[in-house]
Design goal:
The protein has 14 helices and 19 strands. It is α/β, with parallel strands linked by helices. It is globular, with a radius of gyration of 24 Å.
Amino acid sequence: MAQRVSATLARAGLPHDVIADTDLSDDALSPYALLFLPYAPSLTPSQLSKLRSYVSDGGKLVTFYQAAPGLASLLSCTFGPYRETPVTAFQLEAPPADAPLLVAHATTSLLPPHPKPPAVVLARWLDASGRPSDIPAVVLAPNGAAFAHVPPLPSPAAAHLYALLSARLIGTPEPAAPAATSPADYPAPEDLPVRAAWCTSLAPPLRATWRQTFDALSALPLAPNALYVLLPPPVAPSAATPPRELAPLLSDASRAGVAVHAWVPLLSIDALSPALRARLASERRTLPGHPTWLDPANPKNREAILESLLPLAKTGIAGIHFDYIRTPDDLPADPSTSAAITDLLQTLAAALRRANPSLVLSAAVYPTPATAAARNQNWPRWLADGLLDHVSPMIYVDDPDAYRAALDACLAATSPSRLLPGVAVVTDEAQPTPASFAAQLRALAAAHVLGAAYFPLSSAFPPLLPAP
């Protein structure tokens, strides 16, 4: 978490140092006017005493997901009680014209700070349907600020918020308005005919229902017209039959003209329970030394995957989108493993197309052929052999030039018509500005690829698109 805060401060242009929470001596803290405490759930009495002395001497303190009563009193608030509530982002209460309106941050675990005068609520959470709630997300006090959860990813909006806090607390310059974009900065919708979005849940991400979500998105010129909706790993017991939430989603999507693809994590089983992973490992169905990865050559795995996917192919979905069709990062490239994965895909493609000849088969892949091959993911061959209709290289970067370089490597390996490249909305790796996001979309349009795949569909997504 310290690295996340550091990256956000760097993005905000705020000079800073990182010090260990084990070094809270007076000498260590005294040079600094503002101290961020990213995540310290178990502060010792000595550490709390040092922080109180720091604030008493005029320092300002920003805390995250904190429950220590001694810190709450310093920040003119109370912490908690703990709440398990799904939220998607937080929004400033009364932002100045140049402040970010929304900071994307999804969680279900909150320790809300509740202000006491003179502290005030600076931001409140948006609920799971994207509507403002009454739950404080950030409290601003004379001595600092308190956040209800861990630090947000270092997005442009989060960086702007940190700069705003610094200005309010220690008088650094007010942050400049983010660079504005206009519809002219973006390609026309017809230049990106397919616009997919990865959705990490069957639950609607922006509104209370999928119908309301599709209605809200329809006003955006470059809104998704396809969804990759995440399902459990096919060897999970819950994957034995298609999920009941799928039918109403398909109905609402059809009404909105949106194609729904099942996003299937094929070989990674990290999402399964520890007990089920242990059972699969005991049956020698996982890779040696990697109990969260299925062995692609194991016949029982192939049988279980097919038993799960064949009924799914007949539900009316537009396609199946494979993910984690590779080996973990720390396993070396191996011709036999690569061949086993290709053979698995060949088996799945043949069976699924027999069940549903119109089914579109695609995969999320590493962003260049070289990085994919290092993980036994031979996607250029899969396309050449017709096993997949297209792939989505996950090119998650901030810099448009880096994006174009990765895109060029993909174009050297296959036809543009077989590429639906990924573009980051907000990820651990990348948090592009609207200007960078627009430049990446322009690069895709200029390359005449199928379109773009946005990751993920979240509350951070609409602000990156041009206004209608």
